[in-house]
Protein: ETC complex I subunit
Amino acid sequence: MPTARIFQRPKNSTQSGRARTDAWVLEFEPAEPKKPDPLTGWAGSGDTRDQVKLGFPTAEAAIAYAEREGLAFTVIAAPERKLKLQAYADNFR
Structure:
């Protein structure tokens, strides 16, 4: 039985915007470990489900899809957003 992870996409650490962080993603856990290709040295496997990432507007929609398709799943909660409130005057203390 395939297993899946359901999580909310984190904010990109190199940018200040929060675009696409409200969507939820369902991705399959790898069924077999990756091994290096003898010719190119790139890591790969025969598991094609590793390439599939499904997007959902809410966690409930992703859970409903997983239950409807008979997938075992784990929901990974989004990390709590920590605000660091600063004022420009704090630079000169």
